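for the recovery benchmark. tokens below, seq after
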């Protein structure tokens, strides 16, 4: 590993330990999250609940205003509620400012890259 990639690696260590590594990313990004959250998210949330880094994942998604998918066994609506409640009481999860398209695009690109890496890892097995 080169020294230039060392800081990035340190930031993503929790992702390497996640229970969802190797799972189909579509499980964590259901189309009907707001329509039928229970039915569409049950499998993803069950995987999250056995994850050793559940809290790190949830915290990451809340802090960055991740507004799509299942992260740390929470839906986007649940994370919004957590951010609202935290903002009301002044806790460490401040409600993020509006996230511009560039940040959302980067988040999606990172998710797509993780999904592609998980698929290639699964194919190698």
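predicted aa per position
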């Amino acid at each position: 590993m080169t020294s230039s990639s060392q800081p990035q690696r340190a930031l993503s260590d929790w992702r390497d330990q996640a229970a969802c590594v190797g799972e189909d990313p579509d499980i964590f990004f259901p189309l009907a999250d707001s329509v039928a959250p229970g039915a569409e998210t049950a499998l993803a949330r069950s995987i999250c609940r056995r994850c050793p880094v559940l809290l790190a994942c949830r915290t990451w998604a809340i802090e960055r205003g991740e507004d799509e998918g299942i992260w740390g066994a929470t839906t986007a609506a649940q994370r919004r509620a957590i951010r609202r409640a935290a903002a009301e009481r002044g806790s460490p999860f401040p409600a993020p400012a509006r996230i511009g398209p560039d940040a959302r695009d980067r988040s999606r690109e990172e998710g797509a890259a993780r999904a592609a890496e998980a698929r290639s890892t699964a194919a190698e097995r």
